[in-house]
């Protein structure tokens, strides 16, 4: 995910995963609109203000390939929906 604009420090890189559910709160905060408390995700401006704000956060993804994925820090786990296929990756030690 790439971001540019007011309040986005040039040349910075967020080491923690983000999710598409973060887009709505990000846009709301940028527009100065209060973020509803029941809205999933978090504004990405938090990571610009505090680079460690995403530490320990788990991200869940699914898609048409038939796998679900959960990532937390450098550990990424995949599981097949139709079969018992599983994969576990340690991205820090085995990129």
Describe the structure.
It is a single chain. This protein is of the alpha+beta class and 95 residues long. Helices cover 15% and strands 23% of the residues. The protein contains 2 helices and 4 strands. The protein has helices at 23-31, 45-49; strands spanning 58-62, 67-72, 75-80, 86-90. A 4-stranded antiparallel beta sheet has the order 1-2-3-4, with no helix packed on it. A hairpin with a 5-residue loop joins strand 3 and strand 4 (86-90). The longest helix is centred in the N-terminal third of the chain and has 9 residues, at 23-31. It is globular and about 45 Å long. The protein starts with 22 loop residues before the first helix and ends in a 5-residue tail after the last strand.
Task: Give the topology, please.
Blueprint: H1 23-31, H2 45-49, E1 58-62, E2 67-72, E3 75-80, E4 86-90
Antiparallel strand pairs: 1-2, 2-3, 3-4
């Amino acid at each position: 995910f790439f971001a540019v604009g007011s309040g986005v420090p040039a040349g910075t890189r967020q080491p923690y995963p983000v999710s598409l559910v973060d887009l709505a709160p990000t846009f709301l905060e940028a527009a100065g609109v209060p973020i509803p408390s029941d809205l999933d995700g978090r504004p990405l401006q938090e990571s610009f203000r505090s680079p460690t704000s995403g530490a320990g956060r788990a991200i869940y993804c699914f898609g048409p390939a038939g796998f679900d994925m959960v990532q937390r820090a450098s550990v990424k786990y995949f599981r097949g929906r139709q079969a018992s296929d599983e994969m576990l990756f340690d991205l820090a030690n085995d990129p």
